[in-house]
């Protein structure tokens, strides 16, 4: 198999709303080791559904093997995840 697998990986979820939690639930059967998430504020009740840990965006970018983005494009989120995040 070419590329990277999800098994034993850390997945970062930016925006833990309806879609972000659904993606996390879909990825669980693939053996993801740890879910990290960032949002405007911690959401412990929702995060518990996939055992996700709240972290700041810079830590999420640094520790995640894969990152998924599930937030609306607004003036506050535009440029949130840019080229400066990728080298981490």
How are the elements arranged and paired?
Elements: E1 10-14, H1 18-27, E2 34-38, H2 44-47, E3 52-54, H3 57-63, E4 66-69
Parallel strand pairs: 1-2, 1-4, 2-3
InterPro entries: D-isomer_2-hydroxyacid_DH, D-isomer_DH_CS1, D-isomer_DH_NAD-bd, NAD(P)-bd_dom_sf
Organism: Callorhinchus milii (Ghost shark)
Protein name: D-isomer specific 2-hydroxyacid dehydrogenase NAD-binding domain-containing protein
Number of strands: 4
Encode the helix/strand succession as letters. Answer: EHEHEHE
Strand order of the largest sheet: 3-2-1-4
CATH architecture: 3-Layer(aba) Sandwich
Look at the helices and sheets and give the structural class.
Answer: alpha/beta
Strand content: 15-25%
Helical segment count:
3
Bulk shape? globular
Average pLDDT taken over every residue: 90
Q: CATH homologous superfamily?
A: NAD(P)-binding Rossmann-like Domain
Helical proportion, percent range? 10-25%
Quaternary state, please?
single chain
Kindly report the CATH topology.
Answer: Rossmann fold
Low-confidence stretches: none
Spatial gap, N to C terminus:
25 Å
Largest beta sheet, briefly? Answer: 4 strands, parallel
Gyration radius, in Å: 13 Å
CATH class: Alpha Beta
* Tally of individual domains: 1
């Amino acid at each position: 198999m070419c590329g990277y697998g999800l098994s034993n990986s850390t997945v970062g979820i930016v925006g833990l709303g309806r879609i972000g939690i659904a993606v996390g639930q879909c990825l669980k059967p693939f053996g993801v080791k740890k879910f990290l998430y960032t949002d405007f504020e911690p959401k412990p009740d929702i995060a518990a559904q996939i055992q996700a840990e709240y972290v700041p965006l810079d830590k999420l970018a640094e520790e995640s093997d894969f990152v998924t983005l599930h937030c609306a494009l607004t003036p506050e989120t535009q440029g949130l995840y840019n080229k400066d995040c990728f080298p981490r």
